[in-house]
Specification:
The protein has one domain: Rossmann fold (3-Layer(aba) Sandwich), CATH 3.40.50. The protein is of the alpha/beta class. The protein has 11 helices and 8 strands. It has an 8-stranded mixed β-sheet, sandwiched between helices.
Length: 272
């Protein structure tokens, strides 16, 4: 069973898709910066055995609208809550990567009763000053030359060298997502990321949480994510081998096994 919807969230209209058995618990999926909901296509067959899935394009991405920015992480979390409200979903398991993972942290901190479990992938809790300067450079580049100005550099960060060499069709799929992203939406979300300050709040994140890092992710390195897990009460941490920033696409089989193991494990309160 599949359904496509357009739902209002504040000043945005969000593209939403629902898949799966209505008798199963809900799982929400949230995409990376410069991607869209199709980034999760390789996860759907495995996830749908365990959950009914609602996924959406973040504001400014994919088929969702791109209201004038800047955006903030509280607004992005509120967008997810708006979807849950309009679908009458009291609480949900949540899986987000990069921008989607940081949105999930905001949900867990600001709206904890709406989450049953959180899977935060390839995301950070804050940014060092050097990273903030890189965001400024990317905004200047896309403002001058559109998303094509950063597309190839983004793909280098997203995938390992081996994947870029051996799986050109996957890289082409990712390139299309980047190029289809609204410049206004990209810049609006970058503004939200530049204000990221969740790291110091993680001791108050009480939702059962799994942090997942790509082994070769330079944007959200495993060591940084392991430190986030150590700061989060009862959290777990896992590494996806042979994967860079888009670990779910770079090594889907290992990523899926990690995520499905967490979703199928009952209570997730012990640290590993």
């Amino acid at each position: 069973m599949s359904e496509r919807l357009e739902l209002a969230a504040g000043d945005a209209t969000l593209a939403v898709r629902i898949d799966g058995d209505p008798g199963l618990p809900w799982l929400m999926l949230s995409n990376s910066l410069a991607a869209d909901m199709t980034m999760w296509d390789d996860q759907l067959p495995d996830l749908l055995r365990l959950r009914r899935v609602v996924r959406y394009d973040a504001r400014g991405h994919g088929a969702s609208s791109a209201p004038p920015g800047p955006y903030d992480l509280g607004r992005l979390a509120a967008d997810a809550v708006a979807i849950l409200d309009r679908l009458a979903i009291p609480a949900v398991d949540y899986l987000g990567l990069s921008l989607g993972g940081m949105t999930g942290l905001g949900l867990g901190l600001l709206h904890p009763t709406r989450l049953r479990r959180l899977i935060c992938c390839d995301a950070r809790g804050d940014y060092p000053p050097a990273a903030l300067a890189l965001w400024d450079e990317r905004v200047r580049a896309v403002s001058a030359g559109g998303m094509a100005a950063i597309a190839e550099d983004t793909l280098v960060r997203w995938f390992t060298e081996r994947t870029r060499r051996e799986r050109p069709e996957l890289v082409d799929q990712a390139r299309r997502m980047v190029l289809a992203t609204s410049v206004a939406g990209y810049c609006g979300c970058v503004a939200a990321l530049k204000a990221l300050d969740y790291r110091r709040q993680l001791p108050g994140l009480l939702v059962p949480t799994l942090y997942v890092a790509g082994e070769q992710d330079m944007a959200a390195p495993p060591a940084a994510m392991q430190a986030m897990a150590a700061a989060t009460p009862g959290a777990r941490f896992a590494v996806v081998p042979g994967a860079a920033h888009l670990a779910n696409m770079d090594n889907a089989s290992s990523f899926n096994a990690t995520v499905c193991g967490f979703l199928g494990a009952g209570s997730a309160t012990s640290r590993s």
